[in-house]
Design goal:
The protein has 453 residues and is an alpha/beta fold. The protein has 20 helices and 12 strands. It has a 6-stranded parallel beta sheet, sandwiched between helices. It has a 4-stranded parallel beta sheet with strand order 3-4-5-6, with helices on both faces. Strands 1-2 form a two-stranded parallel ribbon.
């Protein structure tokens, strides 16, 4: 987002820009950032909360707000996933959480918790560097992550204005709660803004900017587009044959690879004629563990892989070759198959037909109830699943039929796919990064000379 959009170039017109990135190490040279008009530095070291009371209080706060808000996505996740994994000492926090929520004390408790967490020095390095730089604004692009809130706390203690970018359309309704109160927020679309103000009422008193989805700006840049012949040649595919992309989500959430294996079998058996299958692992979670699984399906089945395989999660990044691979995989796909993921949007931007599983592909269908909830109750994906822009299927035979139908009639449901892209991304002009820069500059102007402590 920083390297390959107009964000930093536009922001640099308003002042000096410094980027702290956790992916900058011995394998990522500063020369990779040469074209970016910014100072680029490694991310400060952030230590975890070592004392148990801090972690318990954070979990208690999450439970309090879950009971207070009863958000469908969070309730579903607790019921089907998290409750099954909770250790006894964390589960015991639910009773006091109910008392706090039902007594209307959730805001009082969270305010006290924020003061406590801000006082906990998790990053002496961030404190020293921020004290030296005295930036006009600190922008967090990962307020739900582990490291970045530690840097936020340092900025808060120093009175530096803070701005949180919500990096995905589902984060507000599905992620663990942001304890810290930022001085402003940046979101993708109006629905995200409404959710933000609903989940975090105090955000109504600070700027909240709607800029679109900067991550997708690369989809509109000719720099990253290659023709079908070149794309297929590099991947040992035939450009004159149809391409089915089966895109997998996080293996920590659902066991989706069983679906890809079944479709690979059917491709090998010739059920789709001479069509080719690309299996795309989740780029964040790809550890090359599926190479052996898909190696025996023949030349019409290809497994994508990334140079990030094996790297620590926070050190993963996308170089230009990976951006090209990402953009053109969805640009040249004839059908995309997935299970309730953001790649639905990737495909919709290019008007590529999307088939979405409404069933659990793993043997035994142990997660069927969860998948039903994701598609029909989770607030971010329900409008997409029920929009008509994706083809919902309930078993593998329906999946095969949907793929075949789309291969023969790719224009089917095109208007609804356009609605999906516009609904999620807000803007489809490739200039969201520039709007984000404008938002940051406006925020810095508003808070100039104003300490936030």
């Amino acid at each position: 987002m920083f390297k390959y959009t107009g964000l930093i170039k536009a922001l640099a017109k308003h002042g000096d820009v410094c980027v702290w990135t956790s992916s900058l190490d011995e394998s990522t040279l500063l020369s990779d950032w040469a074209e970016v008009k910014a100072t680029v530095e490694s991310f400060p070291f952030v230590r975890p909360f070592r004392e148990r009371p801090y972690n318990y209080l954070r979990r208690l706060n999450e439970f309090v707000w879950d009971y207070r808000l009863m958000a469908p996505s969070r309730v579903s996740m607790q019921k089907h996933v998290r409750n099954k994994r909770l250790p006894g000492q964390i589960r015991a926090l639910k009773f006091p959480a109910k008392l706090l929520a039902y007594s209307g004390s959730e805001t009082i408790f969270e305010n006290a918790l924020e003061r406590l967490l801000v006082s906990y020095p998790r990053s002496a390095e961030a404190t020293a560097r921020l004290s030296s730089k005295q930036p006009s604004v600190l922008v967090s692009t990962g307020p739900f992550q582990f490291e970045q809130p530690g840097v936020f706390a340092a900025a808060k203690r120093l009175g530096i204005p803070t701005l949180a970018y919500i990096p995905s359309w589902d984060n507000v309704s599905t992620k663990n709660r942001m304890v810290f109160k930022y001085d402003g927020y940046i979101v993708w679309n109006e629905q995200n803004k409404a959710e933000l103000l609903d989940f975090y009422p105090y955000a109504q008193d600070v700027p909240a900017y709607v800029v679109g989805a900067p991550q997708f700006d690369v989809f509109f840049s000719d720099r990253f587009k290659i023709d079908r012949e070149a794309y297929c040649a590099e991947r040992q595919l035939h450009p004159d044959r149809k391409i089915i992309v089966y895109s997998l989500g996080s293996p920590n959430f659902l066991k989706e690879h069983h679906g890809a294996i079944e479709i690979a079998r059917r491709v090998k058996a010739g059920n789709f004629g001479d069509a080719q299958l690309i299996v795309r692992p989740h780029p964040i979670h790809d550890n090359a563990e599926m190479r052996e699984i898909f190696s025996g399906f023949g030349p019409n089945v290809r497994l994508q892989s990334t140079p990030n395989a094996g790297k620590d999660l926070i050190r993963r990044t996308q170089d230009e070759a990976q951006i090209v691979d990402w953009v053109n995989t969805f640009r040249h796909a004839d059908v995309v198959v997935n299970l309730s993921s953001t790649v639905t949007v990737d495909a919709a931007i290019f008007d590529t037909p999307v088939v979405n599983l409404d069933f659990d592909p793993q043997p035994g269908r142990f997660d069927q109830a969860l998948i039903n909830d994701v598609n029909h109750k989770w607030s971010h994906f329900k409008p997409i699943a029920e929009s008509g822009g994706v083809w919902l299927v309930n078993d593998f035979d329906e999946l095969e039929n949907a793929i075949k139908t789309y291969l023969e009639n790719p224009g089917l449901h095109a208007a609804d796919r356009k609605w999906i892209a516009e609904y999620v991304c807000g803007s489809l002009d490739g200039r969201c990064g520039e709007r984000m820069a404008k938002a940051i500059a406006d925020f810095a102007k508003r808070t100039k000379g104003r300490a936030t402590r």
